[in-house]
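A favour, since you know our structure tokens better than I do. What I am after is a single protein written out in full by you. Could you add the entry underneath, on a fresh line?


***
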Amino acid sequence: MESIRDDLYQFSFYNPTIDLTFNQYLLLTDEPVLFHTGDIHQAKELVPRLKELLAGRQLKYIFVSHFEVDECGGLSLMQDNFPEAKVICSGVTDMQLDGFGISAQTIVKKPGDILKTSSYELEFINYPSEMHLWDGLLVFERNRGIFFSSDLMISRGKSIEVVNSNWEDAILSITSMQIPSPEKRVKLQDELRTIKPEFVAVGHGSCQNLS
């Protein structure tokens, strides 16, 4: 299985009914971290692929940007297979997981927090997610310049080929479909202008190499 960028691996599942691809990512380092689980059906296919790549290593972290089926629908299955993995999420997501009876070892992060290991630095950014504008999290991996965009910056279709773009265009592609509050959308766009990613790992569609 080839990486999409250095030690970053992408897993994709296409749903023709809605013409949308769902992506999850594994950063395969000494402390491996999975970004999203997919729904339960995607997770069942994802687990053996993760085990193949991990080759006996334990999954250290599972990042959940916000509470939605394709972000954490397979979390219980992941925990069954990787019981040592800790879930990184916002305080709101932590409460939602608990409210739905999903027991997890959570590490609650706030915007501006940084999780630093020997091989990566995860910077967390506030994410007013979905129509309810719940406070989720976005992640910028500083060492590699990778921005994990969750449900921002999406593209439809089956193709997952990496495309070329630039950061300002990517920021401006965030619309009311992703963040219905104009004030919160503009605030997030301004916050994103303070980071300088080289690559966007999208939740849906084609990833972006940034010029």
Summary: The mean pLDDT is 95. The radius of gyration is 16 Å.
